[in-house]
Design a protein that fits this description.
By secondary structure, chain A is mostly helical. Chain A has 14 helices and no strands. By secondary structure, chain B is mainly alpha-helical. The longest helix of chain B has 27 residues. Classes of the chains: A mainly alpha, B mainly alpha, C alpha/beta. Chains in contact: A-B, A-C, B-C.
Chain lengths: 318, 311, 508
């Protein structure tokens, strides 16, 4: 498929490191500018805070998803994992357990599911697509069992305080720094990238592919868990299917990040991807676009990222 | 040898499940219940079988998530506006096949990855559905038509007949005809198929078209089953259909996507739900057990090598 | 009988691939009812040539006539219908189809829109019988041994009633009894008027079965002759040719130091394609592993590196058993794999990252990569190995094949490994680059390392290695010590026949 004009246009994107940061920032700026002009309330302090909170959550799951993707796997259950953490935490909170312990146990529960995903993929040879699909189902069952379908309300203020800025953003920045340092400065991150890029060659160079593949699912689970906690804290309640939507958004944002910022710099790319997604959707919502159209738009963005990644790949080959 | 053990062990597990459910509620193993399962299962079956055809040729198809809903919405809408049912059906089947043609063209001729193409088609179909129905449910009041889904023939529900007939036709097509052998050859070793002169592009296109046709049928039957077209009806089948297909690889033709396996897989999924309901067990156990079943089945059928997912 | 009707005529056929001129104007003709052997070293152009005949590849220029029909515009399917059929080197069967289904692939017989299984099986039996091999046609293809696969592929080729049959290394995976069966079949086909092109490395077979032989070297036809008028030595010389004026002279200032303990020991290793392999490699020596395609070299290398599970026998490195690639590397082994793109380089990663891959643990501080240290390490490696790259951060996939290979060599060279396993290490490189590699291999050994150098380029092995181990059909048939006088021709003969003596031309 010869897409010469487009591939030519994409060349500078790949070969210039600064463009990887510049272009996403420009896009973000344009989005904010355009929506701000169309609806001044968009750039109001309150709205920006809202968007930043949303950005924090989506950013967290996107970073988690991006880490998994860079190792050549996928975690479809990340949304559900985020949710189960919130559910467990909320259940404990309303029974009077301390905030700290509740959150800890919630994240712990998510980690268990991360371990399940990791075990299935790395040690049993189940394709992560199918494995995480199964985990999704299992979580759906577990959370209904735990909550009976009821929404858990009236979460204590010691918890909901964590949903108010600047905490979500702090968590995001913390996660970003952790992910950035992990993936781009440590040997572990380097090994994960290499496994994702060529599994066989990595194995022949002495990398333990099973152990390393296992680890990525722990990361996505923990990052997801934090996102779930923030969401529940912000809402003040935990509905049964809380967090489900995160999977789609994480996937879209992570892929968007990969196209814009390259397949390394995974944390940064995920950050950009989620920012763009959140601010775009936020703006459209503010303009009164029908929610059901939003799904369609998200899907189109996703498609655009897939097309984008194919174009850049084929462009490199020519 | 190991393969045979795993195939049968899985069926044995299924046998135990049936015994367990019957023990808990003897009504499980009655004819009436059997019919109910078939009624609940029909749409899922048909969709899953459509996906299977595509997967047999080595590609993947997500577009049912949108096509089923789109077809259903338009069907309900046009019926309520008193268009003649027959022409509506023909129109919609053509539309569904048209989506299949689009999928097939992009994958077969332009060599685009099927994952991406069919997800795209799904979104397009969903968008079109949204545009048509504005997200509202359209109820069908035409008793005449509803009977098609509700009624029985020779003591067995119509929906059950539909799924069984689909199964039989597909089994004949895929396993007993020459074109069917071509599908399987392409999926088995595309290079070998090319070596003997099988037109891979043509047959992949055909596979997508057939799948589209089946999604169309499912799309028409669904609103008849529940007396109305609910928004994004296709989405509820998104995961269960795939799961049924994956489950199918653990039976009959181990490791391969296959028609009877998918049918039984879908049946097991529905049976689990049905059995749990009859046992008075809470409904949320259904996804739980379906998930566990999927995971165990696939783990048994898999070799231990790490697989990667690439987009 | 003076049956010299030409059924296939190639005139001046040229085929180029990016960077490689595979066929440089080949002339070739085939008589009706003859078995014509096609020989040449790896990369000489044999497979390319036959794939052009079957129309899987299209020639860049030149004329091809089959039965007076010009093949220029003919497709693969049409070629098959015309009667051109091939049994490829890499057999492609449908694993979960039965033998019968594979034989009749694409043309299952039907009766009233249903596949006629009885007829299917019957036809398959008929065509399988024509191959002389008896197999249960209801067996699944995945249960077939490699030799049985060849017969099934042959039956499939015979199912179109071919007039021209091409066989590419059919006996590479066969035992002697199967070879007998195959030859009986080929003779029968010959008597029925079928013309056969037979590609093989095995001289003894060619002398037994062929009428004429053509030798390709570097994309050209250098010799065509009646088999009875050419000796084995002449054939070998034609295959190897003059090795060019510049040759790598191994300085025989070797390795007669005190034999220490061997650093790598392979004991009684048996696997899928090799039996009872016993090897000992001492520090400071380069051991060459030579053999033809199908001899089992690559499978043996894979096993030594730890990629095969459940094998008989042991691989011991420095006293420690190797059971996985991770252990192999950990205990001091480096591998230069044969499939560069698939298993060698990480294409998306940079030159520097590829080079530092095995030593990551040595350039970290508290888990963080010391980028400065890494950079200087890689810079050194790039300089030493003269790797052509615009920068250290260039993605390896953009490098030329030869430079990619250098990256892989560089990766291990400075990694402080005790043993280096090379599988076709000089593939895809020009002469200058090859010599650089040879020098580094020798230096590695001189500094105390041990090298197992597997190659199908026998002259190269003779020049570079101290000892030579020859494999033939999965067994080690000859070992040359470093003090032996190594005759190139003899080594080639061992590799091609398993024996060193003279081959007698077949009695007619």
């Amino acid at each position: 498929m010869k897409l010469n004009a487009i591939t030519a246009a994409k060349q500078p994107l790949k070969s210039n490191k600064y463009l990887r940061i510049l272009i996403p920032l420009l896009l973000l700026g344009s989005i904010i500018l355009i929506f701000g002009m169309l609806k001044p309330a968009y750039v109001s302090f309150g709205n920006i805070l809202n968007l930043l909170s949303e950005f924090s959550m989506v950013g967290l799951v996107s970073i988690g998803m991006a880490i998994v993707l860079s190792a050549g796997q996928v975690d479809l259950s990340i949304g559900h994992i985020a949710g189960i953490s919130a559910v467990v935490t909320s259940l404990l909170l309303v029974r009077g357990v301390s905030t700290f312990l509740s959150i800890l146990l919630g994240i712990g529960t998510s980690t268990v599911f991360g371990i399940l995903n990791g075990f299935l993929t790395a040690y049993l040879g189940v394709s992560s697509f199918i494995g995480s699909l199964g985990t999704m189902f299992i979580i759906v069952g577990v959370r209904y069992w735990l909550t009976g379908g009821a929404t858990i309300m009236c979460l204590p203020s010691s918890y909901t305080a964590l949903g108010k800025m600047p905490y979500p953003l702090i968590f995001l920045i913390g996660a970003f720094l952790l992910a950035f340092f992990l993936m781009d400065t440590t040997a572990l991150g380097r090994r994960l990238y290499l496994i994702g890029e060529n599994l066989d060659a990595s194995e022949l160079c002495g990398i333990r592919i099973r152990q390393e593949t296992f680890i990525v699912f722990i990361f996505s689970a923990v990052f997801g868990a934090f996102a779930g906690e923030i969401l529940a804290a912000r809402q003040g309640l935990a509905n049964v299917d809380i967090g489900d939507r995160f999977m789609m958004e994480a996937f879209i944002a992570a892929n968007l990040g990969r196209v814009l910022s390259g397949e390394r710099l995974v944390a940064l790319g995920a950050l950009f991807g989620s920012a763009l997604l959140v601010f775009l959707i936020g703006g459209l919502t503010m303009l009164g676009v029908d929610p059901s159209w939003l799904n369609f738009i998200k899907g189109s963005v996703f498609l655009a990222t897939l097309i984008g990644s194919i174009i850049t790949k084929r462009g490199e080959e020519e | 040898m190991r393969k045979r053990i795993s195939t049968y062990s899985f069926l044995i597990v299924v046998g135990f499940i049936i015994m367990f459910f019957t023990f808990v509620n003897p009504r499980f193993l009655t004819w009436t219940n059997f019919c109910t399962i078939f009624k609940q299962n029909a749409i899922l079956s048909i969709i899953s079988l459509g996906i299977t055809i595509v997967m047999i040729t080595g590609e993947i198809d997500f577009s049912y998530g949108g096509i089923v809903g789109l077809v259903g919405a338009i069907f309900a809408g046009m019926i309520e506006k008193n268009y003649t049912p027959i022409s509506v059906v023909f129109l919609l089947l053509a539309v569904a096949v048209g989506f299949g043609v689009m999928n097939g063209f992009l994958v077969s001729y332009l060599r685009l990855p099927s994952f991406m193409v069919t997800v795209g088609t799904m979104f397009i179909a969903m968008g079109l559905e949204r545009a048509y129905s504005s997200g509202l449910t359209c109820w069908i009041k035409n008793e005449h038509l509803l009977v098609i889904a509700r009624g029985e023939f020779l003591g067995f529900p119509n929906l059950g007949w539909f799924s069984l007939i689909t199964l039989l036709i597909l089994v004949w097509l895929i396993y007993f005809t020459r074109p069917g052998s071509h599908f399987r050859s392409i999926g088995g070793n595309e290079k070998a198929a090319r070596e003997v002169g099988i037109s891979v592009t043509f047959y992949k296109l055909l596979a997508f078209m057939l799948a589209g046709f089946l999604y169309g049928i499912a799309g028409i039957l669904e609103p008849l089953r529940v007396s109305g077209a609910i928004a994004y009806a296709g989405q509820t089948y998104l995961l269960p259909a795939l799961t049924s297909v994956f489950l199918g690889t653990t039976m009959f033709y181990l490791g391969q996507y296959n028609i009877p396996g998918t049918f039984v897989g879908a049946f097991i999924m529905t049976m689990l739900m049905n059995g749990l309901t009859l046992a008075g067990l809470p409904f949320y156990l259904t996804p739980l057990f379906q998930g566990i079943l999927l995971v165990i089945a696939v783990a048994i059928a898999s070799d231990r090598k790490i697989k990667q997912v690439k987009f | 009988m003076d049956k010299k009707k030409v059924v296939l005529k190639l005139t001046n056929v040229v085929k180029e691939f990016p960077g490689v001129k595979a066929l440089k104007g080949v002339n070739f003709d085939l008589y009706q009812g003859e078995i014509h052997a096609l020989i040449g070293a790896n990369g000489a152009g044999k497979t390319t040539l036959v794939r052009i005949i079957t129309r899987e590849l299209k020639e860049d220029s030149g004329n091809i006539e089959f039965m007076n029909i010009n093949l220029k515009k003919i497709s693969v399917k049409e070629a098959r219908q015309l009667g051109i059929s091939m049994v490829e080197q890499d057999i492609n069967l449908i694993p979960f189809f039965t033998v019968a289904e594979n034989v009749m692939l694409g043309s299952f017989p039907t009766k009233a829109a249903i596949i006629d299984r009885k007829k299917l099986n019957g036809l398959a039996v008929k065509f399988l019988k024509k191959t002389g091999k008896d197999l249960d046609v209801k067996r699944k293809a995945y249960s077939l041994s490699p030799a049985e696969q060849v017969f099934v592929a042959l039956a499939r080729a015979l199912a179109v009633n071919p007039k021209l049959l091409i066989l590419d290394e059919p006996t590479a995976r066969m035992g002697l009894s199967d070879v007998k069966i195959l030859f009986t079949t080929l003779r029968r086909l010959k008597s029925e008027g079928v013309s056969i092109i037979y590609i093989s490395h095995r001289l003894e077979e060619i002398y037994e079965i062929a009428d004429r032989v053509t030798i390709l070297r570097d994309g050209e036809n250098v010799l065509t002759s009646e088999i009875s008028s050419v000796s084995a030595n002449e054939i070998v010389k034609a295959i190897i040719g003059e090795r060019g004026v510049v040759t790598f002279i191994r300085k025989k200032e070797t390795v007669l130091k005190e034999r220490e303990e061997p650093v790598l020991v392979v004991r009684g290793l048996s696997g899928y394609k090799f039996r009872n392999i016993k090897l000992e490699i001492f520090p400071g020596e380069v051991v060459g592993l030579v053999g033809m395609v199908g001899a089992g070299k690559t499978e043996l290398v894979n096993a030594i590196v730890g990629r095969e599970k459940g094998l008989e026998g042991d691989v011991i490195l420095d006293g420690k058993p190797i059971t996985s690639p991770y252990k192999a590397v950990k205990f001091g082994m480096g591998v230069i794999p044969e499939k560069r793109k698939k298993e060698g380089i990480v294409g998306e990663a940079t030159v520097c990252e590829n080079i530092s891959l095995p030593i990551l643990s040595k350039i970290i501080r508290f888990g963080f990569i010391n980028f400065l240290q890494e950079r200087s390490y890689c810079k050194k490696a790039v300089e030493i190995f003269n790797i052509q790259t615009p920068s250290l951060t260039q993605k390896v996939k953009y490098l030329s094949g030869g430079n990619q290979q250098k990256v892989i060599v560089a990766r291990w060279f400075l990694a402080g490994k005790k043993v280096l396993i090379c599988d076709e290490a000089s593939q895809g490189m020009d002469v200058g680059a090859k010599f650089e590699i040879y020098e580094f291999i020798r230096k590695f050994a001189k500094d105390g390392g041990a090298v197992l150098y597997s190659t199908s380029d026998i002259p190269e092995a003779v020049q570079v290695c101290d000892r030579i181990v020859v494999m033939h059909r999965g067994e080690i048939v000859k070992e040359y010590e470093s003090t032996d006088d190594i005759s190139l021709d003899e080594v080639v003969l061992y590799a091609m026949t398993g024996k060193g003596g003279q081959i007698n031309a077949k009695e007619n």
